[in-house]
Specification:
single chain, alpha/beta, Rossmann fold, 2 domains, 4-stranded parallel sheet, 10 strands, elongated
Length: 285
């Protein structure tokens, strides 16, 4: 990118400084650091040219030649043995500034831990089985949240049931990050529970209950947040007692364990859910 500067009637074409990002992986780390540093100078007007997946020394000569032609800077994240030294050796005769983004910290870690780095590119972005299971569980929790599709109950590791505002959704998302596929079903007296709920093992179902008064306060705050009046039936104590009584009967019918979430943080509830889940899994084995 170029800009025009007029000095004493002379028009000069000014090019933005160029930072070359060289990496044997994606180069995202070095680019992020370069942009953060560049933002402190010249209103951040730097041109970034990323050269990813550099795997042999022959590729470095072209980068250095290009950097030389525009008087650029080279920032790099190279862990493949020999590439770092080659780049430095090529850039030095041309006085091209080079910045090793990872090297100093890796050296410090090596000294502190007494162990050598793996020197394998792309480890930060390597996708393993646990990563995919976590993503799958998160997508599952979103898809089958709030009883959207009862068919998902048949494929869930855990099914949470309870009246509105008993933390079913946040607990499901917490469990998803633990690679647990969790669905949830809201219990409403006027709506029959899905048939699938009676087809899955009761060890997979966990009920969430709460005391009426705290739930009354939670629902009133929810209505306020939505800009609605707090005298709606949804937040009335009589309505809440009716819902909880209905949920208690259904949970007893299903024979599922029940957790009282009154004054419990999401993490506390999720921890108790996991305890019940893993105990159930052991009992089955």
């Amino acid at each position: 990118m170029r800009s025009v500067r007029i000095t004493r009637g002379v028009v000069k074409i000014m090019s933005d400084p160029v930072i070359f990002i060289v990496s044997d992986s994606l180069g995202e780390t070095a680019e992020f650091v370069a942009r953060a540093a560049a933002s402190q100078f010249n209103s951040g007007r730097f041109e970034i040219r990323r050269i990813p997946y550099v795997s042999d020394k022959s590729m470095l000569a072209d980068v250095v030649e290009e950097a030389k032609s525009v008087k650029g800077i080279i920032a790099y994240t190279l862990v493949i043995p020999g590439l770092k030294e080659e780049l430095e050796n090529l850039a030095r005769p041309h006085n091209i500034p080079t910045v090793d983004v990872l090297g100093p910290l890796m050296q410090a870690l090596e000294q502190t831990t007494g162990t050598s780095p793996k020197l394998l590119p792309g480890l930060l972005h390597r996708l393993d089985d646990q990563y995919f299971r976590r993503i799958e569980a998160i997508e599952f929790a979103i898809k089958y949240d709030d009883g959207k599709d009862a068919r998902g109950l048949l494929h869930a590791d855990i099914v949470l049931i309870g009246v509105s505002r008993t933390s079913k959704t946040p607990v499901c998302m917490y469990l998803a990050h633990k690679r647990i596929k969790a669905a949830n079903v809201p219990l409403v007296p006027e709506v029959a529970p899905p048939a699938e709920l009676f087809k899955i093992p009761k060890r997979k179902i966990i009920g969430l209950t709460i005391k009426p008064q705290p739930l009354n306060q939670i629902r009133q705050e929810r209505l306020k947040a939505l800009g609605l009046t707090t005298d709606a039936e949804y937040a009335s104590l009589e309505r809440i007692q009716k819902e909880i009584a209905y949920a208690d009967r259904l949970m007893a019918q299903l024979g599922c364990p029940v957790i009282d979430v009154t004054n419990k943080a999401v993490e506390e509830t999720a921890s108790k859910v996991l305890e019940i889940y893993y105990k159930g899994e052991r009992d089955v084995r």
